[in-house]
Target: Oxidoreductase
Amino acid sequence: MADTSLLKFVDREQVYPAKREPELRAEDFREIAERYPVPDAEAQAGRCSQCGVPYCSVHCPLHNHIPDWLRLTAEGRLREAYELSNATSTMPEICGRICPQDRLCEGNCVIEFSGHGAVTIGAVEKFITDTAWEEGWVEPLVPGRSRGQSVGVIGAGPAGLSAAEYLRGNGYDVHVYDRYDRAGGLLTYGIPGFKLEKPIVTRRVERLKAGGIVFHENFEVGRDASMDELRQRHDAILIATGVYRARAIKAPGVDANGVVDALAFLTASNRKGFGDAVPSFDDGSLNAAGKHVVVIGGGDTAMDCVRTAIRQDAASVKCLYRRDRANMPGSQREVANAEEEGVEFVWLSAPESFAGEGAVSTVKANAMRLGAPDASGRRAPEIDPEGGFELNADLVIKALGFDAEDLPTLFGAPELNVTRWGTVLVDNKTLMTSLDGVFAAGDIVRGASLVVWAIRDGRDVAANMHRYLKTKAAADMAASKQAA
Model:
């Protein structure tokens, strides 16, 4: 039996769940590592130092009670550990899989600073909640006592789903409107299965549906109903659409056939995984099989694209990023996984132009160097006049991030105020937009960010909407009594 006593970080090594061999995992879209067996999970949780100031919790957007549920896990009290982790997060097993722990909780672990290697927080979180699902500890969503008020949530991504769960628990009728045919947003269509297998998302959505939340799929605000019409249907509205407009590359030939957006590529792949008919995949447009693939970008979306292309049996996969490895925004763990699977990274490079007869066949790239720091403090990339090269490319994937769509125009709501970046402008205290009773949360407010921040924003906005709706109900009741 494993020694599960605490404070064992000095003589117990950090051990992550074993990954499958790269050549095997590149053949499918299953997650690359299994979860811990029980003794290993307890042993790794027991490495926590139970420090007085838990920087892991401080740097977690949800402020999860990490040392507490690590202690409970080490003691074999798994159900209590699950209940504690579930108290602050609506999707702990999803965060355990896709959060960049190396930049958040684990990257700020006290024993990481001491040189002993961080506690494997994400892997333990995944273990706890997967065990809870298997053992039947995940309870149904029980609606609160009906308040006779309804809420419309626009967007079924993590922010919208998180807010919907809290609002339903507070007794509101909740309707979720989403443009896709399945709920989940980027969890469903943007993140590949090797990071987040789709049944993990589906079971969360099904739990919400069983709790009485009504989902309106294939529903576009502005096409199927205007914002004004939704405001008339509901007592409050939440805009949680995320940001989906791909950032453009300004270079000759960027409109050539074979130069595609990352989200289109990832969505096609995920749809094939669901067994959908995907003509753009079947005709080869969004299929990397046998092609020389070049992905442009250095964030997590770019990592998803290169690793997806490997699994589609691309002839070669290269990633061009204009800064160096140390300055890339994506997870270093994802870079390591990609390199293991055969991706070649071309650091300090940026596309100059795309060429080909009828379709792209060549990427001409500039060599870059790092100059003075920019406004964010990162060293700004600039063209190195001494460099430059060409790459063969049958498929170029643009993965430079996402900006907000023009929601006032799309929603037919010109009075909806936005920032100069196109994100929805909200009151920082209430999270209400310029329209009374219309709130916003997630990436559509903060810009492209992490799933864990979207979950946090959904939790925060639900609390503010609850206060607003209680005040509105009280005012309506007072006005009714006065009229009588």
